[in-house]
Amino acid sequence: MFRGSIVALITPFDKNNRIDEQGIKDLVEFHIKNGTDAIVPCGTTGESPTLSHEEHKKVIELTINAVNQRVPVIAGTGSNSTEEAIELTSAAREMGADGALLVMPYYNKPTQKGLYMHFKTIVEKVDIPAIVYNVPSRSGVNLLPSTLASLAELKNITAVKEASGNLEQMAEIIYLCGDKLTLLSGDDKILLPVLSIGGKGVISVVANIIPKEVSLMVRKFEEGSYEEAREMFFKTIYPLSRAMFYETNPIPVKTAARLMGLPAGNLRLPMVDMENSNFEQLKQDLRSFNLLED
User: How many domains does the chain have?
Assistant: First the structure.
């Protein structure tokens, strides 16, 4: 389940800044048509911090219904409140989600013991395969490989989305956890190196706009076509991934999707439109990769 190109889906809004239900359906079809291996609604890229609890559950349910069991749906259900994460994860399981993406508790800055107990409590309360999402730049604390190795002994902790950017740390995770845990890249820009040390895929931002390319690149690597995968990575995925971070995610990727005619809508505050210089550079990048007409 937790392998290949997994898209961290944007959440489209309509002109009244409400959830665009048809937009979610259209995005799901776009991804399935282009080979995306699994879909994550309500991650960071899906603007989850700006969704109410009711909207959060609605986006997950809409995605599950649109996918209709064609690929796995891994619902973003993490929180810095353990009880809130349990509630969202339980709701996602009841709706039929195949897995849960549990982000590190942000702002609280728990100790390693606190992190362990947080995730342990969630997966013991809710029987669903879970991906731990380590993102120190947003959570303010790093999940150490030794802590993750302890979590890997638990029944439902099956994968980690690693967004620390530290390849040595990722190598240590594989060294300590072996086949008890699947390593997924949380950063498109280092997808190729992560695959080279034993990663099995990516939870991707850039796959929102180039799903076919990301899926094919991972598949080529899995098949042993390393030079072909490397060429694809540096030709398209790496440069476009850099463009997705001209400003804070998901500002550039949602802007790019809108420019390409995909359902996106506006950003919700406190996310705002791109600075004009970055916006013009993004348009130039999209044109150079034939994703936007002149």
Answer: 1
Q: Is 111 exposed, middle or buried (0-12, 13-18, 19+ CB in 10 A)?
A: exposed
Per DSSP, 237 falls in state I
Q: Could you report the per-residue pLDDT of 27-60, keeping only the tens digit for each?
A: 999 999 999 999 999 999 999 999 999 999 999 9
CA dist 262 to 42, 56, 72, 86, Å? 18, 21, 22, 33
Supply the CATH number for residue 99's domain.
3.20.20.70
Residues listed for the chain: 294
**169 lies in a domain?**
yes
Catalytic entry in 133, 200, 246, 254: 133
161 catalytic? Reply is yes
Answer yes or no: is 135 within a domain: yes
What angle do helix axes 53-67 and 82-95 make, rounded to 10 degrees? 30
Residue 1 — very low, low, confident or very high, per pLDDT cuts 50/70/90? Answer: confident
Each residue's pLDDT tens digit, 216-225: 999 999 999 9
Catalytic, out of 161, 189, 200, 254: 161
Instruction: Give domain status of residue 50, yes or no.
Output: yes
Sheet holding 201-204, edge to edge: 38-40, 4-8, 201-204, 182-185, 157-162, 130-134, 99-103, 74-76
pLDDT by residue (tens digit) across 228-263? Answer: 999 999 999 999 999 999 999 999 999 999 999 999
Q: Is 133 a catalytic residue?
A: yes
Query: What residues make up the domain containing 53?
Result: 4-225
Q: Note whether 47 and 271 are within 8 A (CB).
A: yes
The HSE-up count of residue 28 (CA atoms within 13 Å, CB side) is: 24
